Amino acid sequence: MSTLEISPVRQGFRDGIPIAMGYFAVAFSLGIIAKKAELSMFEGFISSFFTRASAGEYGVYSLLAAGTTYAEIIGISLIANLRYLLMSASLSQKFAESTSLFKRIVVAFCITDEVFGISIAYPGKLVPSYTYSAALVSTFFWALGTAGGILAGDVLPANIVSALSVALYGMFLAIIIPPAQKDRKIGWAVLASFVISGICAVFPYMCQLGSGIRIILLTILISAFFAWLKPIKSQEV
Prior knowledge:
Layout: H1 8-36, H2 41-51, H3 54-66, H4 70-80, H5 83-91, H6 101-110, H7 113-120, H8 128-155, H9 158-182, H10 184-202, H11 211-229
């Protein structure tokens, strides 16, 4: 190794720091939601450290605050985080054949959208220690942000807490708007989800279902319908 090269561990820490800074800001808003679910700072830190999924955690905390069942919480978590299974399968092709199964499993556990992005872009075969270090620094700040948001929910005025909680909705809009603008099919799917969700919230019988159950059902039905209506052709994959 030349003097100009750095180890995969140091490279992972360096690439993970910008992700960590963004994670802290987003997780701070997530902590406001966790506070509404009556989680302590320690519980929020541990939850975020071992989950690291904004949409999944938001769903869990919202359902906890609403007093829903564990079955609903598990269901929405599985649906919201299912994409990580596909990311892990894709990333498995980047490993050297000699990489042990244990190291592959640990890397899969480290995967988030951003960590996957830098790991899949790693030049040549992926060195597991690179992903470990990037995930460690970003995960710590993600968990720290959640704990900080819970603390802020204790000490900040109620109107400030309410304003900060809106930031997480802004994050979700930032996630869905760019792909919706790029692909009209995605835009129609997003619009349909808004409209149908609003209708089901007041429609007889459907409104009597728990919010978690409605989310799960609508997610499966709407995504399945658009997958059938506008399937991705093999050359587009």
